[in-house]
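Lab meeting minutes (informal)
Scribe: AK
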Amino acid sequence: MKKFFKIVFMVIGIMLACVAFLFRSWLIEPLSAQDTPITDVREGDVIFQTSQSSQSPLIQIGTRSHITHCGIIVMRDGKPYVLETLKTLVLTPLDKFIARGKDGKYWLKRSDKENIKIDYAHYLGKPYDLAFSFDNDIYYCSELVYDIYKNQLGIELCKPKQVGDYLILGTDKLDKIENTMQRRGITKEQYAVAPVDVFESEYLHSVK
């Protein structure tokens, strides 16, 4: 009997290892993330990371990407900050933003538009948009970047997609995701912009 249970546990262990491996390989790995200080950063650059928030794993599954959070660089008093959405919309020192991400790694992208100046004051203090809605004057991370580029810089980085078009977020297979959507008032028909959509924009190029 002990031998039987030992075999069973061994088989379960192998199965779990296979599931973990398949899940990791199922995610689309973007260009290698950086983990060194940025020496060339400009206002308007977009910075991405794998967030360590509770919703980050759901975003990874839904978008098939490790990229789950982003913000836009602004310069204040000659120092770089990240305009980002946390519980409210804030300016975060660049080094603090980087340190908060998984393994301290990040991706940095830039447009070809020169001498960018972001009018960010009216965004500060706005609450995080839990409903992921457009046109309600509150924002989630990638919507913020999308909005600034479209309305201030005249560049539509990507086309919004219906929530139902994302790989998992549009299904009814995961109760946790469905419950989260229902609690936040998110529908499968509404449009959204994911961090990876911004990352893959043809109007941004990688900065090393």
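Next up, CB showed the second protein from the same session:
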Amino acid sequence: MAVTRAIMVLGTSSNVGKSWLVTGLCALLHRWGFSVAPFKALGISSNTAPARSPAGEWGEIGRAQATQAEACGLAPDVDMNPLLIKPVGPGRFHRLLLGQRVDPACSLSMEALWADVTAAYRRTAAHRDFVVVEGSGSPVELNLLDQDLANGRLARFAAEQARNTGGDAACLLVGDIERGGSSPRWSAPSP
């Protein structure tokens, strides 16, 4: 079994540069000769790209994950972005699971989705030196913590999977001061 390391990129909010940082890390690790793959459990994007499933069927993933795959020297694979919400109009969206549209009337339990996410992660991580994981939104969205499939729960899972192979894991937090999510320094208020 190959030793796999996981690097998870989390953000203080959406649109802080997580996708760009993941793409850069993927390209750098690939350039250094490591076998690397991107992973984003849950994405929301109307900008998609074609990708193959493990069975060879065509599906869709987020364009950012397809670009990250290319930075790794890989063809896009639906396992790299197993859950995708694709806006298609005002208040309308398609749900994609492993690249395929899910019937809007179909109820998907959180535990069933978690099983799909973890299976896709395991397939993505198999025989890789690194998996660079992109979180979704912010890991501290309190209203979503009980439904977390893409941030803290996934970080713990990726770290456990890495340790099981003798590897390790790290998390990076990306912030954008313009979006109020970070500050370069803190000083105590004046008396």
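CB comment: The domain at 5-174 is CATH 3.40.50.300 (Rossmann fold).
No objections, moving on.
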